[in-house]
Amino acid sequence: MTKPLTPPATIAFIGLGMMGRPMAARLVDAGFKLRVFDTSQKAVSDFVGAHPAALATASAKAAAQGADALITMLPDGKIVRQAVLEGRDPAIDGLAAGALVLDMSSSNPVDTQKLARDLAAKGVALLDAPVSGGVKRAIDGSLTIIVGGAEADLERARPAIASMGKAITLCGPVGAGHALKSLNNYLSAASLVAMCEALVVGEAFGLDPGTMVDVFNTSSGMSNSTQVKGRQQVVNRAFAAGFTTSLMAKDLRTAGDVAAHLKLKMPHLEQAVAYWGAANEKLGKGADHTEIFRYAEMLAENKG
Ligand code: NAD
Questions:
Q1: Residue 186 pLDDT greater than 80, yes or no
Q2: In terms of residue numbers, what domain contains 236?
Q3: pLDDT at residue 2, as a whole number
Q4: What is the pLDDT of residues 17-60, one digit of tens each?
Q5: What does the radius of gyration of the chain's CA atoms come to, in whole angstroms?
Q6: Is 228 contained in some domain?
Q7: Residue 303: what pLDDT?
Q8: What is the pLDDT of residue 1?
Q9: Number of domains present in the structure of the chain
Q10: Fewer Cβ atoms within 10 A, N terminus or C terminus of the chain?
């Protein structure tokens, strides 16, 4: 096995958004040397302002120079491919052969498998290591990390991954992590919509939404949506979980693409893809995914 990624190894980190920021912060705190890049200059300067040990760079290529590993935390797999391989000043032009790439974004597994083949041809291994748990668990380093790839590559990356997450599961070869992540988010999205519709109906019937959530949480209707989004994001209309409707709609499309790729007919999943796609159009850019409750309210009043 190549040398494990232990501090003070150098890690290039690309994508300092809602999730990337706290994940990169955990790596700095663990003692890794970070070279960071984001197309938002503000994201980069805010990050190095808060974490002076990290080095700001002006491109994916510059971030990758001299790095033992590269982590991407970007919106989707197409953007990952641009940043790593095909865009302007891509990371591959800076990465040394033998470096390891970890795509921790929620990407499409079929794209990931192709990216892995293309990187392998250049002597670079890829692990897909998408995460679950949201911003709160990214901050405290307790993310679930869903890994696809070679066991030896995971063992090499484990010390770095372990500074960001607790439950680390190798699910299969490259792409397996991304496939499982999209299916997990299908369950998450489905339970959230079901809770929102139940709240809209219940409220119209005269039930108190807070009471409804409390009863769900001690009954068979309980889910992560009722437990961590019911009162905290929906009933109080905070709508600030830190994960956008647009990203959830993308994850649903990924799950739908996986099923279609395998020629499997999944009518409920197809409906979920269409529902979240339409909600994303209606709710607009930047809407939190918990605003799906507002969309359920609009549909209930025929305003969707
Ligand atoms: P985000 O939109 O907040 O952050 C994405 C960052 O990528 C932004 O800072 C953006 O400027 C940057 N970026 C975009 N294109 C780039 C490029 N070509 N090169 C460099 N930087 C670029 O998204 P997020 O919520 O942090 O999510 C990131 C990934 O993690 C997504 O795939 C998402 O589905 C997944 N995810 C998010 C959450 C969550 O709770 N937010 C939870 C689990 C997984």
A1: yes
A2: 179-300
A3: 74
A4: 999 999 999 999 999 999 999 999 999 999 999 999 999 999 99
A5: 20
A6: yes
A7: 80
A8: 52
A9: 2
A10: N
Q: Does any domain span residue 271?
A: yes
Is any ligand 1 atom within 6 A of the Cβ of residue 138? no
The residue out of 150, 174, 198 marking a domain boundary is: 174
Q: Are residues 214 and 277 in the same domain?
A: yes
For the stretch 251-272, pLDDT in tens is 999 999 999 999 999 999 999 9
Q: Which atom of ligand 1 is the closest one to the Cα of 241?
A: 40
The owner of tokens 């549909």 is: 299
**177 close to ligand 1 (CB < 6 Angstrom):** no
Is residue 213 a contact partner of residue 279, using CB atoms and an 8 Å limit? no
CATH of the domain at 256: 1.10.1040.10
Q: Which residue has the higher pLDDT, 109 or 303?
A: 109
Does pTM top 0.90 for this prediction? Answer: yes
For the cut 80, the answer to whether the pLDDT of residue 118 exceeds it is yes
Nearest CA to ligand 1 atom 30: 105
Tell which of 158, 174, 190 closes a domain: 174
The CA-to-CA distance between both ends of the chain, in Å, stands at: 55
Q: pLDDT band at residue 79, thresholds of 50, 70 and 90?
A: very high
Residue nearest atom 9 in ligand 1 by C-alpha distance: 17
